Amino acid sequence: MLNKVDKKHENDNCATLLIDLPQGQEVNIKGQNFILKQVIPFGHEFPSSDLPPENLVFKYDQIIGINKRKIQQGEWINVYDLKVII
Amino acid sequence: MEEFMGYERPKRLIGIRNKIGVIASVSCVNHVVEKIAQGIENSVAITHPLGCGQFGQDFTNVQRTLTGLGANPNLYSVIIVGLGCENLKSSILAKNIKRFKKPVEFFDLQDIKGGEPVAVEKGIKIGKQMASEAKELKREPFDFSHLVLGLECGGSDSISGITANPVVGIVSDKIVELGGVSILPEFTEWIGTEHLLMKRAINENVARRIEHPIKKLLERTMQMGIDFRGTQPSPGNIEGGLTTIEEKSLGTTAKSGKAPIRGVINYSQRPKGKGLWLMIEPGNDIESMTGLAAAGAQIITMTTGRGSPVGNPIAPVIKLSGSPRTCDWLKCHIDVDASKIITENKSIEDIAEILWQKIKQVCNGKQTKAEKLGHNNIAIWRHMAFPFSLV
Questions:
Q1: Radius of gyration of chain B (CA)
Q2: Residue of A43, A62, A63 lying closest to B159 (CB–CB)
Q3: What percent of chain B has pLDDT over 90?
Q4: Between vectors from CA B145 to CA B71 and to CA B149, what angle results, nearest 5°?
Q5: What is the CA B355 to chain-centroid distance, rounded?
Q6: pLDDT tens profile B296-314
Q7: Chain B, nearest residue to A3 by Cα
Q8: What is the tens place of the pLDDT at every residue in B273-294?
């Protein structure tokens, strides 16, 4: 596995995990290192910086939702955490 | 110049398959249609649960779809079987399809003395004659301006939007560049990306037509007490990492590349010119691919992160997946392994080139995995007459 995480755009504040990794694993996104704070399933997303509540979440340089609770860098963003904006 | 080997039909339409279509005008004769098709070499049975007891848009929709399927250039000729008392007359379907100047025959079971066994014998006799004529045709070279590509996706995960879907986007742009047609269906998966699609519309009118069906759908379903936004993403999408309808849509619409959007067509409607078109269709894979084939698509690409076996009896379906697990476990269903973007550090462009070569091979006659396995799925989108409780 070469690409472990994928961040589509520099403005994005979340990244996609492209391999199953254990909790506590250190990952690197574009030169920035941090720890995965929980088990995140393959293909799911996590914030690349701390997200305060009611923050816009960006992927592909586009808004994919608003997070309801505070999500820390390296935590799992799951379907219950985001609400739609449309 | 890039070319493929196809069959020339009247009206300068080009087929990449040379099949005999046996179409039921109404569900009552589905079994007769299946038996006829079993007796004819290189034929396909087009059966469905509709054709009677329908009215309004719901009726015209089915009529337009079955006409479009019969007209698809992948069919050399068509046999239509009716019952006799249904709404959707076999004679009307035959008349519609004959406008495409291909051989068309039709009959109703109620007009056959002796019923099913005699009808099956009659159908097979007509079909065998057609099949021997079809065999005489030879493939000839044509450029890609003759190709209509359908852009399907199903069982998406959050990997699809960063692997297989942008791969298809590159190939869709290439088809448009070469003068062909590309169609993006499933308007329920444009929700949340309207602003981006509207920016690509060739004019203000087309932009409005992109936004309109989505607004109308959300309004009308809300009036019925349904928040449509809550129906997407699906449970499988969520397990695959998709969070919101916006995220799903951003991945989905990546299949349409960067080309300008020429217009918005109704379900099963033929595009009125070359380039990229959007089709109103509500996100069920089988219904969507049926609509694409009826709109004239000779070939369909389907991206499937989670994995899907489905195929279409008229337009071959090439499947791609970006998920390493799906490409391994469901290998027998996946034609192009886009997971190498993750596992082998291949670029989106590398896989797009592999897909392009695959499209050429399939156009030239090579079977897709779904064709080999015999997945011939047909479902027609219903404009539901009673989408509310009557009790």
A1: 21
A2: A43
A3: 87
A4: 60
A5: 18
A6: 999 999 999 999 999 999 9
A7: B342
A8: 999 999 999 889 999 999 999 9
- Compute CA B377 distance to the chain's CA centroid, rounded to the nearest angstrom: 10
Q: Is the pLDDT of residue B36 over 90?
A: yes
Q: Is residue A1 very low, low, confident or very high in pLDDT (cuts 50, 70, 90)?
A: very low
Phi, psi for residue A20 in degrees, rounded to 5: -75, 120
**pLDDT value, residue B232:** 84
Using N-to-C axis directions, what is the helix angle for B116-136 and B30-38, rounded to 10°? 50
A84 close contact with B: CB closer than 8 A: yes
Contact between B298 and B16 under an 8 Å Cβ cutoff? The reply is yes
pLDDT of A2 over the 60 cut: no
Which of B159, B196, B246 lies nearest to residue A84, judging by beta carbons? B246
CB of A42 less than 8 A from some CB of B: yes
Q: Label the pairing between strands B75-82 and B181-184.
A: unpaired
Q: How far apart are CA B207 and CA B223, in angstroms?
A: 25
User: Tokens 């969520």 identify what position?
Assistant: B238
Residues B87 and B59 sit within 8 Å (Cβ to Cβ): yes
Please name the amino acid found at residue B40: I
Closest residue by Cα to residue B151 from B277, B321, B306, B5: B277
Res B388 pLDDT > 70: no
Whether residue B215 contacts residue B310, with contact meaning beta carbons closer than 8 Å, is answered with no
Distance of alpha carbon B285 from alpha carbon B366, whole angstroms: 23
Beta carbons of A42 and B162 less than 8 angstroms apart: no
Residue B33, both tokens: 């249609």
Q: Count how many pairs of residues, chain A against chain B, have C-beta atoms within 8 Å.
A: 75
Q: Is B242 on the interface with A (CB under 8 A)?
A: yes
Instruction: Provide the token pair at B290.
Output: 């049926």
Contacts of B323 in chain A (CB under 8 A): 43
